Amino acid sequence: MLKVEAYQVADSIDIRTFRQAFTLVPTYAESDELFYSIDDNKYIYIFKYGIVSLLNHSDVEATAFLKLLQDYCRNPLTKRLSDEFEIETGSDQVIFGYNRISIPEAKADTLRLIMLHVSQSVALDHYEAQTNQLIAETNSHTQVLEQKGKLGLGSTALKKYIGKTLILKNRIAENLYIFDSPEATWENEELNNLDKGLKRTFDLQSRFRTIQEGLAIVKENLELFKDLLQHRQSNFLEWIIIILILVEVVNLFVEKIWG
C-alpha cells in the first residue's frame, strides 16, 4: 500500500530557488512544478502555487521536508490544508474508490498523475475557503446596506477588496489544470483514462465551477458597491458645487448691500 499526502503550505513556493538549492536532480521539471524520485516508489512533487505532495514518506520524513521547504515559501499558511490518498498495486485493472485507487503497477508516470490530482484537490479546498471568506465579507456589507440604506465601505477599502478578488481569480486561472489534461496523457490512452477517472473521483470540475460561481457573485456585488460609491461621491461633489455657488451669491449680495 502506497500513500500520497498533499499539503497546502503557502500561497506560493519559489520553485526556481528551491531547485538551485536542492541537491537532487528532478525527474521532471517545469517553471511551476518539480517532481523528484527519492527511492523506489518514493517521490516528492512541488508546485508553484504552494502545494507539496509526498508519496510513501514516513511522518518523520514528511515533517523534515516540510521544515526544509519553509525557507522557499511565500506567505506561509498558519493552518495547513492537507489530504491523503491510498494507492494499491497489483490489480488487474484500474479501480477507483473513496480516497483510494487500485492500479496494476506503480509506474512513475502513473504515480505522478495521481499525485497531481491529489494536489489539485487540496488546492481547490484552499481556494474554496478563500472564496467563501470573500462571500461572507460581501454578505456582511450587503446586510449593512440593507439595514442602514448606505454602504459602509470607503473608496480605498473597496479598491483593496476588488484587488483581493482579482488576485484570487488570477491565481486559480494560472495554477489549476482542472479542464486541461497534462501533456503526458495526450498520447497515452492508459494515462488519459486514468486522468479522466481521477477528475471524476475528486469531483474537480464541479468544485471548480462552484468556486467560479462564488467569485462571479462577489464580482457582481462589487460592481454594485462601486456604482453606489460613485453615486455617493457624485452627490458629494454636487453639494460642494451648490455650496460654493451659494457662498458666491451671498458674497455678491453682501457687496451690493454694504458696497
Task: Please tag this protein with its features.
259 residues; alpha+beta; 6 helices; eight-stranded mixed β-sheet
Structural overview:
The protein has 259 residues and is of the alpha+beta class. The protein has one domain (2-220). Helix content is 57%, strand content 22%. The chain is built from six helices and eight strands; from the N terminus they run E-H-E-E-E-E-H-E-E-E-H-H-H-H. Strand 3 (33-39) and strand 4 form a beta hairpin. Helix 3 packs parallel to helix 5, helix 3 (108-148) packs parallel to helix 6 (204-258) and helix 4 runs antiparallel to helix 6 (204-258). The chain starts with a strand and ends with a helix. The model has no long low-confidence stretch (mean pLDDT 85).
Main sheet properties: 8 strands, mixed
Task: Assign the structural class, choosing from mainly alpha, mainly beta, alpha/beta, alpha+beta, or little secondary structure.
Answer: alpha+beta
Name the strands of the widest sheet in spatial order: 2-3-4-5-1-6-8-7
Regions with little confidence, pLDDT below 50 for 5+ residues: none
Number of helices, where a helix is a run of at least 4 consecutive DSSP H or I residues:
6
* Whole-number mean pLDDT: 85
Q: Whole-Å distance between the termini?
A: 100 Å
Percentage of β-strand residues: 15-25%
- As a whole number of angstroms, the C-alpha radius of gyration is 27 Å
What best-fitting shape do the alpha-carbon axes yield? elongated
Oligomer: single chain
